[in-house]
Amino acid sequence: MVEQVSGSAWAECPNGVESALEVLKGDGKLKREIEFETKLRALLADYNYSLRNVIALLDPSAGKGAAAPAKGARRERALKRYKNPHNGEVVETKGGNHKVLKAWKEEFGAEKVESWLQ
């Protein structure tokens, strides 16, 4: 709401910051909003509540799901072991970006190489 008021103040006062500030000081909506916030913060202080406590009371689901997941929450990839039946070579990898595995897939086909998984 303050942004709307300040936006209109700038439009009304092309002379600069001082004149825009004077318009804001005379704005009834802004005065009421500031008064409300001041009284709300005083009331919260009287009862040792924070804004988070009030939000939790008014909307218990507001805080849930908004937080970013913790780092490392992703499950570690399983180790895969491929054995080439043509030469007996074994490749162990946790992903499909292994140099030898890619070469095998290019030479023998991805479906065939996946059948070598142990």
Total DSSP E strands: 2
Mean pLDDT level: 81
User: How many discrete domains?
Assistant: 2
Tally of contiguous helical segments: 6
SS class: mainly alpha
Strand order in space, largest sheet: 1-2
**Uncertain stretches of 5 or more adjacent residues:** none
> Could you tell me how far the N terminus lies from the C terminus, measured between alpha carbons in angstroms?
63 Å
Biggest sheet record: 2 strands, antiparallel
Q: How much of the residues is beta strand, in percent?
A: 5-15%
Calculate Rg over CA atoms. Answer: 32 Å
Shape: elongated
Order of helices and strands: HHHHEEHH
Please bin the fraction of helical residues: 40-55%
Structure in words:
With 118 residues, this protein is mainly alpha-helical. The protein has two domains: 2-58; 80-114, no CATH class. The chain has helices spanning 2-12, 17-25, 28-46, 51-58, 99-108, 110-114; strands at residues 80-83, 90-93. A two-stranded antiparallel ribbon has the order 1-2. Strand 1 and strand 2 form a beta hairpin. Helix 1 crosses helix 2 (17-25). The mean pLDDT is 81.
Task: Walk me through the topology.
Blueprint: H1 2-12, H2 17-25, H3 28-46, H4 51-58, E1 80-83, E2 90-93, H5 99-108, H6 110-114
Antiparallel strand pairs: 1-2
Helix pairs in contact: 1-2
Quick overview of this protein structure:
With 118 residues, this protein is mainly α. The chain is 53% helix and 7% strand.
List keywords for this structure.
6 helices; elongated; 2 domains; mainly alpha; 7% strand
